[in-house]
Amino acid sequence: MSRRALLLWAVLAIVAAGCSNRPDATAAPTTSAVADASTTSTVPAADPDPATDDGIVVDGPVPERGAISTTTGPLEWGRPELAWEPVAGAVRYEVTLFAPDGYGYWAWQGTATSVHVGGEPQLLADAAGPTAVTGMTWQVLAIGPDGAVIALSERTAIGP
Q1: In Å, what is the CA distance from 20 to each residue of 6, 43, 104, 117, 151?
Q2: What residue ranges do the domains of the chain occupy?
Q3: What is the topology classification, in CATH, of domain 3-157?
Q4: CA–CA separation, 145 and 78 (whole Å)
Q5: pTM exceeds 0.70 for this model
Q6: Higher-confidence position of 1 and 76
Q7: 91 vs 74: CA distance, rounded Å
């Protein structure tokens, strides 16, 4: 799949999932606090800025950022493990890895609560496929049985 097609798929997955505005990129791998989903927001579409805006239009109930606790494994081979705490009621999770410029770079969805960049099983160092670099961020959405986002994480930094 070309990078452009993958980018389009990732952006469409985020739009469909209905994530909220104002992600905060952190400088190092962190664990974010757990919160309840209880706000409503409309965010105008804009160019993505990893520190301030997803560039996604959201209208309806929006979970508070940080409602999923995340951790990032070491950047070994450029394919770290991205892990998060399970969310009650979630039937699947959607993960998006963002390039340093804020655009979607790689996306995954499934029922597991961790995945290596590039998918599972973890790709070897010399294998073709997506790799992460310092300056990238990632975010996970928890999706309920009705397809609505029930929780989402802060954007978490990749690398040291």
Answers
A1: 21, 7, 15, 23, 10
A2: 3-157
A3: Immunoglobulin-like (2.60.40)
A4: 33
A5: no
A6: 76
A7: 27
